[in-house]
Structure formats: structure tokens, C-alpha cells
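Hi Y.,

Following your request, here is the sequence exactly as I used it, all 71 residues.
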Amino acid sequence: MPKKKIYFRRFLIDYLCEHHKRSIKLSACISSVADFLATQYYIIFILEKAVILSELVWISAFAGMTREFSF
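Below is the corresponding structure, written out as C-alpha cells. Let me know if you'd prefer a different format.
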């Protein structure tokens, strides 16, 4: 995975943990969601460490489709 995508994947996981102030079980499901979103990083805009709300809808949609992804 390219360096930019690895960084972005880590950012997504960190952002979710920080934003929701709850621990997230780092499972294969979460990793696959982060991997998918990292491949779509050109759609997701980062503005001073914030993810645009419309992109959080993507995270929520994928969260609903996985059993181990919980807030």
C-alpha cells in the first residue's frame, strides 16, 4: 500500500477514536473499512484534521455493514 494511503488509513482510525471518544476494537472489519476509504482518499478532504461530514456518512454506512465495527 502506498505511503500516502497508509498514513490516511491510520488517520481515519485515529480520527474515529478521537472524534467519538470511545475505544474501537481494531479488527479485520475496521481495517477493511479503513483500507477501502484509504483507496478513496481523493474523494475525502482533510481540513485541519477534520473529515467532511458527507464522508462520515460513508463510514457510518460501512459501520452498519460490519459486526465488529462499533462506536
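The CA atoms of residues 63 and 69 lie 5 Å apart.

Thanks again,
Q.
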